[in-house]
């Protein structure tokens, strides 16, 4: 072995302190000297409407500052001018230039936000479970086997993704409420619902919590010894945004011990890791974090949407799935970008998403083909585009449910008229001149039965 070169510090495995960058301090980032004043102003304009947060790991180790403004991780975390529609951009830019009052800027921003399909008041009501007549805020139960749980301390992230559909939560305009006696209510609900096998902790990012806070949720769940509960999943971007969480933070050992405890209790622990680009799998500290997590018995499953400007080509996906499998992670979902926020900037036509999936899938071995997609998490369920074909002389999309509000919908192929511009399920019409998709009648009935229901999308 070569002696370490004393002049070159090992940059990735030292123990850095987390430092976040927000609108009020991003200009202090040394690399900002590479941006024009216009680019920095654009960050301020767009960041006044959509959430912005980066951190020292993202800035120092993920972004390639020689590749600005096209670097995928730069686009993933730093607001770009075109993420706002021109009229919205111009309105905020004018106010900032005039030095307008903060409250005036906030009012304008809120008006614009309301036009970005933020799922406002009441619209996320319809998956809220009920126990003894009480609505369980901070939980959702849409698909039979899995309950989503939103721990109140886990509702922010180590950095924000510019494409995130949870953006209203991060700009403080979500009416989403979190439960007070959180974990006890979850356990009581699980006792009443023997069909539930999985609990999915989600956020924000639950891995923003200290080991101690996370333990205050996981330990009671283990101790409850529920006969139906088999798996605990944690949705997280921490491997991409703050891998030190699993390597060198002050409570890392406690966290890994907690993971061991879950696995040791006989429950399957799965981290549902969000990776949007293969670059995120390169730093040595990320690889070390993956090794340490897997060493506790936890599995890591991976998911991401297809995003224009970030990962909209097959080679990128093939590289990402290969790298994940090499590291012992299991590719799980490829999603379609949601119809909210800066969707106009990130979305690709459904047909293109399918082509990307198909071409990437063809390039990888069966061990990578655990992934499913492209999938839309829409109101009726998770809908996968299987492909473009032709029947009865008509060009059509073939789709199927991977998950459905009614489990009976799952795995039934159905058909939509081909549409080269469609980017979301709502854009599609049934093929062969039919009036409705097979599930629509039942959907409407489900929603008539539930007061206050809407047709908004869901949280996962
Ligand atoms: C995706 C999702 C789940 C989990 O579904 P799996 O297919 O089991 O991964 C659970 N609840 C909601 C609301 C979801 O969107
Ligand atoms: S919730 Fe996930 S996708 Fe959204 S900003 Fe946080 S890390 Fe990114």
Automatic annotation (TrEMBL):
The source's domain of life comes to Bacteria
Q: Which cofactor does it need?
A: [4Fe-4S] cluster; pyridoxal 5'-phosphate
Q: Give UniProt keywords alphabetically.
A: 4Fe-4S, Iron, Iron-sulfur, Metal-binding, Pyridoxal phosphate, S-adenosyl-L-methionine
Q: Where is the Radical SAM core domain?
A: 141-374
State the Gene3D superfamilies in the record.
Aldolase class I
Q: GO terms for molecular function, please?
A: 4 iron, 4 sulfur cluster binding; catalytic activity; metal ion binding
Q: Does the keyword Iron apply?
A: yes
Q: Which family does it belong to?
A: Belongs to the radical SAM superfamily. KamA family.
Question: Do you know which PANTHER family this protein is assigned to?
Answer: L-LYSINE 2,3-AMINOMUTASE AQ_1632-RELATED (PTHR30538:SF0), LYSINE 2,3-AMINOMUTASE-RELATED (PTHR30538)
Q: What is the designated name of this protein?
A: Lysine 2,3-aminomutase related protein
Native organism is Sulfuricella denitrificans (strain DSM 22764 / NBRC 105220 / skB26)
